[in-house]
Amino acid sequence: MYVSPVREPLIKGKKDYNKVTEDITAPMAGKPSKYWYMGIGLSLLALLAGGIGTVITIWYGIGTWGLNKTIGWGWGITNLVWWIGIGHAGTFISAILLLFRQKWRTSINRSAEAMTLMAVTCAGFFPLIHMGRLLLGFFIIPYPNTRDLWVNFNSPLLWDVFAISTYGIVSLLFWYTGLIPDLATMRDRATHKIKKAIYNLLSFGWTGSARHWSRHETLSLIMAGLAAPLVLSVHTIVSFDFATSVIPGWHTTIFPPYFVSGAIFSGFAMVLTLMIVARKALNLEDYITVNHVESMNKIIITTGSIVGIAYLTELFVAWYSGVEYEQYAFMNRALGPYAWAYWIMMTCNVITPQLFWFKKIRRSLIATFIISIFVNIGMWFERFVIIITSLHRDFLPSSWSMYAPSLVEVALFIGTLGLFFTLFLLFIRAFPIIAIAEVKSVLKSSGENKKHSNHE
Amino acid sequence: MNNQQYITAYYLDDDDLMKSVKHIREKGLSINDVLTPFPVHGLDKLLGHRRSYLPQVGFIGGAIGAICGFYFQYWIFTEAYPLNFGGKPFASIPSFIPVTFECTVLFAAFSMFFAFLIRSGLGLGAQAKIHDEKVTDDRFMVIIPIDESNRQDSINHIEAVLNETGAKEVKVNG
Amino acid sequence: MEKQYYRSLDELKVDREKVNEKPVKEFEAEKDVLLDLMEENNFNTSSSRRDFLKVFGFSIASAAVLASCEQPVRKAIPYLNRPEEITPGKANYYASTYFDGNDYCSVLVKVRDGRPIKIEGNTLSSVTKGGTNARTQASVLSLYDNARYKAPAIKGEETTWKNIDQDIQNQLNQLTQNKEKIVLLTPTIISPSTKAVIEQFQQKYPTTQHIQYDAVSASGILDANKKTFGQAFIPSYHFEKAATIVSFGADFLGSWLSPVEYTKQYVQMRKLDEGEQKMSHHIHVEAGMSLTGSNADKRIIVKNSRQKAVIANVYNHLLALSGQSTFNAPETSVDTKAIAEELYKNRGKSLVVSGSNDTDAQMMVNGINQLLGNFGKTIDTSVHLKIKQGIDQEMESLVQEMNEGTVGGVIMWNVNPVYDYPGTDAFSSALKNTKLRVSLAESKNETAEETEYICPVNHYLESWNDAEIKTGHYSLGQPAIRPIFSTRQGQESLLRWTGSNTEYHEYLKNYWTGNLFPASGYLSADKFWTDKLHDGIYETDQSETNINGFSSNAIVNAVSQLKNESTKNIELELYQNVSVGNGTHANNPWLQELPDPVTKICWDNYAAISPKLAEEMGIEDNDLIRIDQKPIPAVIQPGQEYKTISVALGYGRQKAGTVGEKVGVNAYIFSRFADGQRLTWSTVKEVNKAGEKYPLARTQTHHSMEGRAIVREATLKEYQKNPAAGNELHEKIESHHKTLYDKHEFPGHHWGMAIDLNSCTGCNACVVGCSSENNVPVVGKKQVLMAREMHWIRIDRYYQGDQENPSVVRQPVMCQHCDNAPCENVCPVAATTHSNEGINQMAYNRCIGTRYCNNNCPYKVRRFNFYDYTGADALPGNIVDPAEMTLDLKRMVLNPDVTIRAKGVIEKCSFCVQRIQEKKLDAKLENRQLGDGEIKPACAQACPADAIVFGDLNDENSKVSKIFKDQRSYHLLEELHTLPSVGYLTKIRNKEEA
Amino acid sequence: MEHKQFQFNNKVIIPSVLLLILGILAVIGALVTDIPRERIIANLHLNNVYFLAFALCGLFFVAVHSIAESGWHTSIQRIPEAMGMFVPFAGIIMLVLFIFGKHDLFHWTHTDHLDEVLLHKQPYLNSTFFYIRFVVYFLGWGLLGYALRKNSLLLGETGDIKYFNKQRTFSAIFVVFFAITSSTASWDWLMSIDAHWFSTLYGWYIFSSLLVSGMAVITLFVLLLRRMGYLPHVNIEHLNDLGRYMFAFSIFWMYLWFSQYMLYWYGNIPEETVYYYERLNNFENYFFINIILCFAAPFLIIMLRQMKRIPFVLGITSVIIIVGHWVDFYQLIMPGSIGDKAGFGMLEIGLTLGYFGLFALFVFRALSKAPLVPKNHPFYKESLEYHTNY
């Protein structure tokens, strides 16, 4: 297919198909580096902290958290939304960018999707652990109990159960579908017997038959078509958790699209944070190029601006509505006791991404890395602001109250970070973190070496 | 599979593959299969493959999911155990939409995924017949069945055609 | 309301024996409600009803066993023969009397399966009229207090009653022989039969002096009346007849004399039901913000040392108005003329009271009331209030005598002077000079711990008793349970020591049949006795006849000596709050966790200081300050007099049990004697910041309504012009109500509750009543600090206006049972739903604790069990129970009709659904319509102000339906269209400007 | 491939003018019969806004595809560009209507009897500020639209990378400007009709409506031009993409519609539900027809790939969407502005067709002013070799 010479190459260096395979599978070969061990050590330590927090929470109760009669959700749900948001990048890259024909997605979709799965795992942990009676959490499954009672389909939390599990499953299927051919590559390259057997099992007997490829492509495409609205639906439903209520600051119609765009915003930031490190550590600079980073930064600035406009819209409509509770809620956000969190959110989410208007910054890896971390922080604070500042001062001033997390809550958050990075570090050792087959399919049209000579 | 034998050969470039497939087909040879390390665009057309029915499967799966998901909720709220939640009507249709949607997607995805596996004979424990381990790396392999009734002629003919196309490692394979 | 009052278990022993002679009859089916219920639910097992009963008997028996000894609780013997009056699962009510020397209340004791579990007001009493206060409600828990003395002890060694009796008798005889003085120190005794017992004791031991000692006394009133009427007495006040009430520091709704009675009276003149257009005008002069002061229409801030001058000026103006000669009154900045003029306008319809213990002040108040012609109208001198008979001077003399060594023995019965006598150890050191020290005490206290002989007395629910709260107003107390421990009631001990073997029960009965029966008009003494025991009260129209005419000589004398006292010093004011009161009940966790109606602080007392003083001294809330070296946390109290610091009494108990010990500081040490009276205010030498913080547990931290229409109010004038004044929003909002789906139908009942903000005084009785009825957990100070208190009903308090003298509004808030409840929608597991009777119901065992409902509740009335407070959790050993509420002993107080909630579960007000179901069943079994007002949730039951009305909104004629149609009626946050089933009536203030 | 210059001849002028005359006749007819004046004004407002939305969507389409460095759109981009040229004229007719008819449309302009809520909103909802905003919108859109068009023509002509980059910059500015103004303008012209009511999502909801209806108009013009023999290079793949856009944005519209409706339905707070209450009780037909036409029909018709590749089906779907969103705007405007005076008859049909004629005249004229394809656009060749597998 013809590609305009104006476009930058997506794969740098003079590559052939074999080189692609070699490059991408290289990180899995041999012994892990000492940095890998350090990383996994730290991650496991964090995971341990989370484990201790979990045991304490289950044994002693939610009382070990900083919540109170007014503020029923704190860091737990903040983290849930944050992780779910991060989990949106993968599917967005794979599904929506696929539908919009953005070829640059091929280098990052695999790892982004894997991050989706990991983030969803981390996210899914919080609605479970935040329950007062975790051991009875199975009540949430729609089955008739001994008194023929079912569940409440009016509850956004129940929708969440469906949405998050569906999202997790479909993402897994989608990710795995894409992984099958690459697993076959791994199988065929594996020299160790056990390794080969495992990859053989996982690759589902893939041969690379043209028929299979044809179906595989159709499957990927339709799955992408399904995943695109699904990715919208998940964060929409998460936003419904808040927006369906009557609490000022929560009950607002812009939440669904604004949450989705915030999710993609934060997801891309996390992908960038990891990929900027990973491309260097795993020698994949030719595949994940500055061009890729720039493209992602463009998405960040778009979604960041949408989020910014949503903030302003909320502020304006709070005033415009003439509803005193709404007005107070927003005044309180900006000027109340949690104003610091609000301004961290504003700075990190609205102001810093605007730096990406400058091409220099957009293409600077260091700047991108720093800003991506800012965005991660900002988006965490966005959820914190939404949850805490809305709850801590709602309708009746008599019940107003303050919230600070306990050590247990902090430990749980750190634990999920540990889980996330542990899974990621294991992932890069076990699976090709770039979709080998997909990169090969765009190598000719968008690779550097064949750039100027391609004709059909 | 019975004793059917094949001649396999590979190319190192997808463009070469396309050209030779065209050539082989023009020579009247039937191609049993082509193995490639990545999906080569336009190959289906050259090989004369039909479009897959997976979208239809997905649609049916999704439709079933939607209907089941919706009716499940509707039945519980109006028949099985109607409860007054915050004054909402028993049939609180807007509330049913999110779960209905999720069920639709879930059913569609599952049905397609498994249809894909079943139709392609893939799955946990399925054994691939590996002709060449480099097929998943950088080799594009054509597999042409040998006419068993006229074995040697067939082999010769096929080898000749393949050699014309610049194929590498033309060999008979079980 | 028809309630069946049962007689006591003991009383029925005879009947039971009679019953047992006959073959036991099969019970009548309709009585056995529960059994039928079980059958309806298709318990088609082979077991018969009788088998079931045997099993069920366990619970009753276990209680009975527990009540008798310390055997393991769970070993139980089934009732083979059911006692006549006990139906398993049905509660009995016994009339009784609560009097602890400080508070009086005629009560009904709810006994379930042998255990008293709830106290309710006795509506037959013309004094308390079914009202209760927080302490009365909480008193049932004291019965199960682990700090109670469980057996007699000599010098800390447990012993038998026989031994201790012998010892004490010997010593008493010895003292009598030596003509050494024996003092019987008690709080005010209002029991006529007990007085007879004491007389008998005094006959046996003639050197005995009986001294009544009230830690917070009314000695000033007694003295003033003695000087003006010739007799030391407290008259009956009639707030319900007063159009203008002027109170000089008398917290008559909270702690002054008989607050339950006064609240009942007071709200009669405050209610604007059924188009009533008039209400009383209440002027309150005080230094600290009291409960009563915060309810006043006009609150005038005057420091304690200057209040006398204000009284004098009012008196002087009234003298002038009535054309009498005036005197030289000290100056005051208060517009006393206006007060006097208003009072004068309302001659005979006004009431002036003072809480001061200053004889002169009280005499002037008498003079004022006399000038206004209030005696005989709003003040009845012929019916005396018998409460607070203690004369401070007697106690003062006693301590002097003890110090001199002229007192041989002291028997202290239910008093705690080591704790509550002024000074740090004045009493304690005096006590050391006596030879015999006997304590008749109910539970661990500072005084008893300093005596050799501890003779534990029964809790009042284990005791026989009687009371004459007012002249001719008798009431009886009867045990509702056998003594749980090896205790004996005080009267019985005294009788034993006189050598008598009469049981006090007999003694009491004889006293009543001997002294009261003859004039009762009854033909049979037995009938008289059983009737009165059933009713709990016996009221006659007796009156005091030996009251002299009013004499103003003493007043003239007094005013001539009035000095213009003026001091720049900071004054310290001591007061009793509605929860802990004088400190007797400091070990009661329900009371400790009860937020103060003004500051909303619990689990501590504190120094309330004025905002201006705080600013000057750089003091913030929770700063520890030192008042004459004594450290105490400060709270900035709007409306506090500039240079007055108020501290609550009753805290700082050193020996009281796990709950009450070392909670707050003992402020009694600051009280003092002056002019023969004990005063509860003094000047302090120095106040300074300690530089530390001391966090106070406060259930409400934001005090402004932020301009929201939460509590709606109007002035009386506006109301008279427009009954919807202040409530204009209601109609507007109602007219805008649009819904996208129709309301569900409530074909049977639709329960609703109306709360009159004009009546509610904020006394907190409802809060304790609710906790008691619904097994609401106590969470302790640490958890309250984290804003995790569990109360199902709370009383919100907001300040309005300038902080120098703000107006105060209160609003009881419980679950509003919204028909469009935001909480119900969002529970994923359908644990909270709407019943077809309009109740927002919680299925605790279904709840998984997402707290989503709590977040969504606009009223924030849902409570989450952050820890295992009740021992109901599946995981053992992780209970958070600062108040020991999970002790088997204390768990006896639990209401078996209400599930205790496990860790991780949301709970909230249920409209006392168990009471609704009970009454519905009663009506069904009796095949009749449920009457309006028959169902009373615990809060409505407890309310002394009748501010809470409950009923069926589907019944057009029910009281609650009518109130809902009142133009003052509105719903909290009604603009949200949550359609609450709770309505509020606007608060109307009788004042000029809004 | 040879490209014909678009001819602004009688073949296109006559039908357009006929439609325009039909519209004028409809208004005259309404004036002489007893149709209330307010109804005419409300209809004029409806069509003003609706056709302006097409024009803005045209500009937005061009801008977004420039930023996204899309290739395939280059072969049809002249059509959205031409649509954008309607913006200034729409501004003029809108201004005239507001000057004469704002009191019939906006209750908040009755400054003599405002309740406290509207008084509270006065700093925003007052005529002066309203007109200032109006001018800012049209200046911004007009100038940026003009710049985009001019630059695009230059780029198409020269293929100079300088113009390519410039186009990207203009596009970015336009998108940012439009992101804000599309919301505020929809508050001004639509949301403030129900002056007490508010919804934070409103602006984005209108935006989605604009997007999908504009896309349908683009599709319709592409089909029309192909039918007339222009744009021979536009193949089934391009149509497929346009169809996919319509399909996806229909779902997106439904998503936003549902989000807004569900949240207000769920909260059931009167000040919010009053909006839907009005529509469900007095305009229930429009309410449901709206959903069917805007979502159900396009969703079912063009879900399958095969259907998107049939020009006729695509055309029908475009028309359904255009009608559907007209109904959407109808039920956005009518209940709040004229309430029970609203109706549906010859006036509505005629006037809308008249606007179509007017709009078509502008578009055709603009198309004729420039080559139909940017033959030197760097991505133009990509567009020609465009084929998809999905």
In short:
Chain A is mainly α. Chain A has 16 helices and no strands.
Instruction: Count the DSSP helices of chain B.
Output: 5
Name of the level-1 CATH class of the largest domain in chain B: Alpha Beta
Total number of β-strand segments of chain B? 4
CATH topology of the largest domain in chain B: Alpha-Beta Plaits
- What percentage of the residues of chain A does DSSP assign to strands (E)? under 5%
Calculate Rg of chain A over CA atoms: 23 Å
Q: Which residues of chain B form runs of ≥5 with pLDDT under 50?
A: none
Largest interface (CB < 8 Å):
A-B, 65 and 67 residues
Biggest sheet character of chain A: none
- Helices and strands of chain B: which structural class? alpha+beta
Distance between the termini of chain A: 6 Å
Oligomer: heterotetramer
Ends distance of chain B: 10 Å
Give the overall form of chain A: globular
Tell the overall outline of chain B.
Answer: rod-shaped
Structural class of chain A: mainly alpha
Task: Write out key terms for the chains shown.
heterotetramer; B: alpha+beta; Alpha-Beta Plaits; four-stranded antiparallel beta sheet; 4 strands; D: 390 residues; mainly alpha; 15 helices
Write up what this structure looks like.
The complex is a heterotetramer of chains A (456), B (174), C (994) and D (390). Chain B has helices at 14-26, 43-47, 54-80, 93-120, 151-164, and strands at 6-11, 33-35, 140-145, 168-173. By secondary structure, chain B is α+β, with helices and mostly antiparallel strands. Chain B has two domains: 6-37 and 138-173, 2-Layer Sandwich (Alpha-Beta Plaits); 54-120, no CATH class. Chain B has a four-stranded antiparallel beta sheet. The radius of gyration of chain B is 25 Å and the shape is rod-shaped. Chain B starts with 5 loop residues before the first strand and ends with a strand. Chain C has five domains: 5-143, no CATH class; 153-216 and 390-519, Rossmann fold; 219-385, Dimethylsulfoxide Reductase, domain 2 (3-Layer(aba) Sandwich); 576-698, Beta Barrel (Barwin-like endoglucanases); 724-989, Alpha-Beta Plaits (2-Layer Sandwich), CATH 3.30.70. In chain C, strands 6-5-17-16-15-7-8 form a seven-stranded mixed beta sheet, with helices on both faces. A seven-stranded mixed beta sheet of chain C has the order 29-21-26-23-25-24-30. Chain C is globular, with a radius of gyration of 28 Å. Chain D has 390 residues and is an all-alpha fold. Chain D has one domain. Chain D has helices at 10-32, 37-67, 78-84, 87-105, 116-121, 127-158, 161-189, 202-227, 236-267, 270-282, 284-301, 305-308, 311-337, 346-368, 380-384. In chain D, helix 8 (202-227) packs antiparallel against helix 9 (236-267), helix 8 runs antiparallel to helix 13 and helix 10 (270-282) packs across helix 11 (284-301). The chains are: A mainly alpha (456), B alpha+beta (174), C alpha/beta (994), D mainly alpha (390). The interface between A and D is large, with 44 and 50 residues.
